[in-house]
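Contributing new records

If you add data, match the layout below exactly. Sequence lines come first and carry their own label; structure lines follow with theirs. Keep one chain per record. Anything else will be rejected by the validation script.
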Amino acid sequence: MNPKIDEFIDRATKWQKEFEKLRDIVLACDLTEELKWGQPCYSYQKSNIVLIHGFKDYCALLFFKGSLLNDPSGILIQQTRNVQVARQIRFTNMKEITKLAKVIKSYIYEAIEIERAGLKPKLKKTADFKVVEEFQKKLDKRPALRTAFEKLTPGRQKGYLLYFASAKQAKTRESRIEKYIPEILKGKGLDD
Protein backbone atom coordinates (compact mmCIF):
# COMPACT_ATOMS: atom_id res chain seq x y z
CA MET A 1 0.00 0.00 0.00
CA ASN A 2 1.34 3.36 -1.03
CA PRO A 3 1.09 6.20 1.53
CA LYS A 4 0.41 8.68 -1.28
CA ILE A 5 -2.83 6.81 -2.00
CA ASP A 6 -3.74 7.01 1.70
CA GLU A 7 -3.33 10.79 1.42
CA PHE A 8 -5.38 10.89 -1.79
CA ILE A 9 -8.25 9.03 -0.14
CA ASP A 10 -8.03 11.08 3.07
CA ARG A 11 -8.26 14.32 1.05
CA ALA A 12 -11.21 13.12 -1.05
CA THR A 13 -14.36 15.08 -0.27
CA LYS A 14 -16.53 12.70 -2.28
CA TRP A 15 -16.35 8.96 -2.95
CA GLN A 16 -13.98 8.29 -0.05
CA LYS A 17 -15.57 4.97 1.01
CA GLU A 18 -15.97 3.90 -2.60
CA PHE A 19 -12.28 4.65 -3.29
CA GLU A 20 -11.28 2.55 -0.29
CA LYS A 21 -13.41 -0.39 -1.46
CA LEU A 22 -12.11 -0.17 -5.03
CA ARG A 23 -8.57 0.02 -3.69
CA ASP A 24 -9.09 -3.14 -1.63
CA ILE A 25 -10.44 -5.00 -4.65
CA VAL A 26 -7.58 -3.91 -6.93
CA LEU A 27 -4.84 -4.60 -4.37
CA ALA A 28 -6.21 -8.13 -3.93
CA CYS A 29 -5.13 -8.69 -7.54
CA ASP A 30 -1.42 -8.18 -6.70
CA LEU A 31 -0.86 -4.97 -8.63
CA THR A 32 1.66 -2.24 -7.80
CA GLU A 33 0.06 0.91 -6.42
CA GLU A 34 1.28 4.40 -7.40
CA LEU A 35 -0.07 7.92 -7.66
CA LYS A 36 -0.04 8.95 -11.35
CA TRP A 37 -1.76 11.94 -12.88
CA GLY A 38 -2.95 12.70 -9.35
CA GLN A 39 -4.96 9.44 -9.21
CA PRO A 40 -4.44 5.96 -7.72
CA CYS A 41 -2.94 3.91 -10.53
CA TYR A 42 -2.23 0.18 -10.51
CA SER A 43 0.30 -1.56 -12.69
CA TYR A 44 1.65 -4.99 -13.53
CA GLN A 45 5.40 -5.12 -14.24
CA LYS A 46 5.43 -1.35 -14.87
CA SER A 47 2.50 -1.49 -17.32
CA ASN A 48 -0.57 0.47 -16.28
CA ILE A 49 -3.62 -1.73 -15.81
CA VAL A 50 -6.29 0.29 -14.02
CA LEU A 51 -6.80 3.72 -12.47
CA ILE A 52 -9.31 4.85 -9.82
CA HIS A 53 -10.84 8.26 -10.33
CA GLY A 54 -13.84 10.27 -9.25
CA PHE A 55 -16.16 12.69 -10.96
CA LYS A 56 -19.14 14.72 -9.86
CA ASP A 57 -21.76 12.05 -10.57
CA TYR A 58 -19.74 8.86 -10.31
CA CYS A 59 -16.43 7.26 -9.43
CA ALA A 60 -14.81 4.79 -11.79
CA LEU A 61 -12.19 2.21 -12.56
CA LEU A 62 -10.48 3.06 -15.82
CA PHE A 63 -8.91 0.16 -17.71
CA PHE A 64 -6.08 1.44 -19.88
CA LYS A 65 -6.61 -1.28 -22.51
CA GLY A 66 -10.31 -1.69 -21.84
CA SER A 67 -11.20 -2.02 -25.52
CA LEU A 68 -9.35 -5.35 -25.53
CA LEU A 69 -11.33 -6.75 -22.60
CA ASN A 70 -14.24 -9.11 -23.04
CA ASP A 71 -17.26 -7.49 -21.45
CA PRO A 72 -19.72 -10.30 -20.69
CA SER A 73 -21.42 -8.18 -18.00
CA GLY A 74 -21.82 -5.20 -20.35
CA ILE A 75 -20.38 -2.75 -17.81
CA LEU A 76 -17.49 -1.14 -19.72
CA ILE A 77 -18.11 2.41 -20.89
CA GLN A 78 -16.26 4.40 -23.52
CA GLN A 79 -15.87 7.85 -21.92
CA THR A 80 -16.31 9.83 -25.13
CA ARG A 81 -16.52 8.82 -28.77
CA ASN A 82 -12.93 10.00 -29.28
CA VAL A 83 -11.44 7.70 -26.64
CA GLN A 84 -10.04 4.78 -28.58
CA VAL A 85 -8.76 2.31 -26.00
CA ALA A 86 -9.56 3.09 -22.35
CA ARG A 87 -12.86 1.95 -20.82
CA GLN A 88 -14.49 2.68 -17.47
CA ILE A 89 -16.67 0.83 -15.01
CA ARG A 90 -18.74 3.52 -13.29
CA PHE A 91 -20.22 3.45 -9.82
CA THR A 92 -22.60 5.77 -8.01
CA ASN A 93 -22.58 4.03 -4.61
CA MET A 94 -20.88 1.44 -2.45
CA LYS A 95 -23.59 -1.15 -3.05
CA GLU A 96 -22.79 -1.30 -6.77
CA ILE A 97 -19.09 -1.87 -6.06
CA THR A 98 -19.77 -4.59 -3.50
CA LYS A 99 -22.21 -6.34 -5.86
CA LEU A 100 -19.66 -6.31 -8.72
CA ALA A 101 -16.51 -7.13 -6.70
CA LYS A 102 -16.00 -10.59 -8.26
CA VAL A 103 -16.69 -9.28 -11.76
CA ILE A 104 -14.26 -6.39 -11.23
CA LYS A 105 -11.54 -8.84 -10.18
CA SER A 106 -12.16 -11.00 -13.23
CA TYR A 107 -11.81 -7.95 -15.50
CA ILE A 108 -8.57 -6.96 -13.72
CA TYR A 109 -7.14 -10.48 -14.12
CA GLU A 110 -8.06 -10.44 -17.80
CA ALA A 111 -6.33 -7.03 -18.17
CA ILE A 112 -3.21 -8.51 -16.56
CA GLU A 113 -3.31 -11.42 -19.03
CA ILE A 114 -3.59 -8.94 -21.91
CA GLU A 115 -0.37 -7.30 -20.65
CA ARG A 116 1.39 -10.65 -20.21
CA ALA A 117 0.45 -11.59 -23.76
CA GLY A 118 1.77 -8.25 -25.04
CA LEU A 119 -1.48 -7.46 -26.84
CA LYS A 120 -1.75 -4.00 -28.37
CA PRO A 121 -4.96 -2.24 -29.32
CA LYS A 122 -5.44 -1.21 -32.92
CA LEU A 123 -5.52 2.58 -33.06
CA LYS A 124 -6.98 4.76 -35.75
CA LYS A 125 -4.38 6.37 -37.96
CA THR A 126 -4.33 10.14 -38.42
CA ALA A 127 -5.59 9.58 -41.97
CA ASP A 128 -8.75 8.01 -40.51
CA PHE A 129 -9.76 11.31 -38.90
CA LYS A 130 -11.86 13.81 -40.83
CA VAL A 131 -10.14 16.95 -42.08
CA VAL A 132 -12.76 19.71 -42.10
CA GLU A 133 -13.17 21.56 -45.37
CA GLU A 134 -12.00 24.88 -43.92
CA PHE A 135 -8.71 23.38 -42.74
CA GLN A 136 -8.21 21.40 -45.95
CA LYS A 137 -8.45 24.64 -47.96
CA LYS A 138 -5.76 26.23 -45.77
CA LEU A 139 -3.52 23.19 -46.18
CA ASP A 140 -3.99 23.28 -49.96
CA LYS A 141 -3.24 27.01 -50.19
CA ARG A 142 -0.27 27.10 -47.82
CA PRO A 143 2.45 24.49 -48.46
CA ALA A 144 4.36 25.66 -45.34
CA LEU A 145 1.28 24.95 -43.20
CA ARG A 146 0.87 21.50 -44.74
CA THR A 147 4.55 20.70 -44.13
CA ALA A 148 4.37 21.95 -40.53
CA PHE A 149 1.18 19.98 -39.89
CA GLU A 150 2.67 16.79 -41.34
CA LYS A 151 5.73 17.19 -39.10
CA LEU A 152 3.56 17.22 -35.96
CA THR A 153 3.29 14.00 -33.97
CA PRO A 154 0.24 11.89 -34.80
CA GLY A 155 -1.26 12.77 -31.41
CA ARG A 156 -0.93 16.50 -32.07
CA GLN A 157 -2.40 16.10 -35.54
CA LYS A 158 -5.38 14.17 -34.17
CA GLY A 159 -5.86 16.77 -31.45
CA TYR A 160 -6.17 19.56 -33.98
CA LEU A 161 -8.40 17.56 -36.33
CA LEU A 162 -10.78 16.61 -33.51
CA TYR A 163 -10.83 20.16 -32.14
CA PHE A 164 -11.55 21.72 -35.53
CA ALA A 165 -14.22 19.13 -36.37
CA SER A 166 -16.00 19.55 -33.03
CA ALA A 167 -17.17 23.06 -33.93
CA LYS A 168 -20.69 22.94 -35.35
CA GLN A 169 -20.58 26.20 -37.28
CA ALA A 170 -18.23 26.99 -40.15
CA LYS A 171 -17.50 30.39 -38.63
CA THR A 172 -16.29 28.76 -35.40
CA ARG A 173 -14.18 26.22 -37.29
CA GLU A 174 -12.62 29.05 -39.31
CA SER A 175 -11.87 31.01 -36.15
CA ARG A 176 -10.26 28.02 -34.44
CA ILE A 177 -8.12 27.26 -37.46
CA GLU A 178 -6.92 30.86 -37.76
CA LYS A 179 -6.09 30.97 -34.06
CA TYR A 180 -3.96 27.81 -34.23
CA ILE A 181 -2.16 28.25 -37.55
CA PRO A 182 0.74 30.09 -35.80
CA GLU A 183 1.03 27.24 -33.27
CA ILE A 184 1.06 24.61 -36.00
CA LEU A 185 3.76 26.56 -37.85
CA LYS A 186 5.82 26.56 -34.61
CA GLY A 187 5.43 22.77 -34.33
CA LYS A 188 3.20 22.97 -31.26
CA GLY A 189 0.12 21.03 -30.32
CA LEU A 190 -3.16 22.31 -28.91
CA ASP A 191 -1.99 22.21 -25.29
CA ASP A 192 1.71 23.02 -25.68
